[in-house]
Amino acid sequence: MQVNKRTPSVAIIGAGMTGIMLAIKLCKMGIKKITIIEKKEQPGGTWRENTYPGVACDVPSHMYCYSFAPNPNWSHLFAPGKEILAYFNRVFIEYELAQYTRFNETVTQCIYKDSQWHITTNTEHNLTVDFLFSATGILHQPMLPNISGKEVFSGISMHSAQWDHEVSLTGKKIGVIGTGSSAAQLIPELIKQNNTQVTVFQRTPAWMLGIKNKPYNEQQKQHYRNHPLRTKIVNKILLYLCAKLTTALTKNSFIHKKIIQFFTHQSISYVKKTIQDKKLQKKLIPTYTLGCKRLVINATYYDALNKPNATLETQPIETVVHQGIRTQDGQIHKLDVIIYATGFNPFAYMHPMTLIGRNGVNIEDVWNKKIQAYRSLCIPNFPNFFLMLGPHSPIANYSMIEISEKQANWAINLIKSWQHHKLDIIEAKPEAMKVWCEMLNKKKHNTVWASGCQSWYLDKDGDPITWPDTWTNWVALMRQPNLKDFR
């Protein structure tokens, strides 16, 4: 007896990189009951939000695009933010996703009851669906440092992800707190502006590779346009090389130690080659193991610090005061502008919305002690819910697009099983979750993140929130879901 194939309804929260890709893949498998709920007026996610001077991707452009939409026209090895946003907008338009999207609408609550998800937004247009994807990303909630006095500063303050383009920085005394990837891109642009005085407040230096952001000339772009296979080959080579580096962060063998030592040597050599001042060199060389914090790819930051209008301050910040910032040595750094280049809350995930699963279970209670998800995507007691780029996704210096696509394929395979009545609901069993977490706990000890450092890769217990094994092993695990692990 033939059983009719089910046709699901799906909601996707977020029209950023992951949300766009999910909608396209679902459409390609014939699912058209899709609703994308986007809080802003246009798609783009983090590339719509981050518009600070110098914003760019820190993975090579040709590995930062969808497998089904290669881009032969990237202008640089590391594409600028505006160009990446334009790419996502173009793909959004090309696949006609506007018909599925509700803009300027924020999800406030999702409740699972009667075998469906009931979604409440800040409008009166609520929604009920079979499947729910959270595609809010991990870099969407700006994080401010725990420093007192921020509210008393008389000048202008802003987070790098909330850039105010109306503010003129010409002739200003600017303080930048943070030395991660965003700061390394932003600071040289500030130092180049007319008559600025820029003080960089550094808590911990970053390991940095000085790879120049070379432009692609028109002949190279034309070659990629004429030979699409070449674009795919370059993509695969770049993914392979990044996989080898990230693998070195998760293994403790002789060869992997040598890889870490090689990049450490390269980074130190780059500091010494670029920075002439011996005291400044010492301040810029980290003491923790390379890779424990995100490796910064940048070839302009050190040069900028050599400029006469740049100062690197390594005294810890005591407090923000009316005139600027006071460091622990008692010095008051008088400032007109304070910029917080302090990153994002990596544990925000779907927050601030409320997520209620089976029998009234709240995600806040489930995650009170530990943030966990089976295969990074599924949580017991939250049926038919997928958390894209969830905890223990392999996010360390790798292409988020590649990760998201593999997670999407895995989730869609589960939905296919539901369509063909192999599963009535998609909910990870508690015992499967337990085995998954035990495996993660066992593997974490061999990783660079267990070497001891403060990093956004670590949770409140000091455990890595990223994947603690090789890229190859993760890909193998995500190739096909094990239906026995689901109710």
TrEMBL record:
Question: Known InterPro entries for this protein?
Answer: FAD-bind_Monooxygenase_sf (IPR051209), FAD/NAD-bd_sf (IPR036188), Flavin_mOase (IPR000960), Flavin_mOase-like (IPR020946)
Family matches, as Pfam families: FMO-like (PF00743)
* Entry keyword set: FAD, Flavoprotein, Membrane, Oxidoreductase, Transmembrane, Transmembrane helix
Residues passing through the membrane, by range: 6-24
Gene3D superfamilies, per the entry: FAD/NAD(P)-binding domain
What is this protein called in UniProt? NAD(P)/FAD-dependent oxidoreductase
| Species whose genome carries this gene | Shewanella surugensis
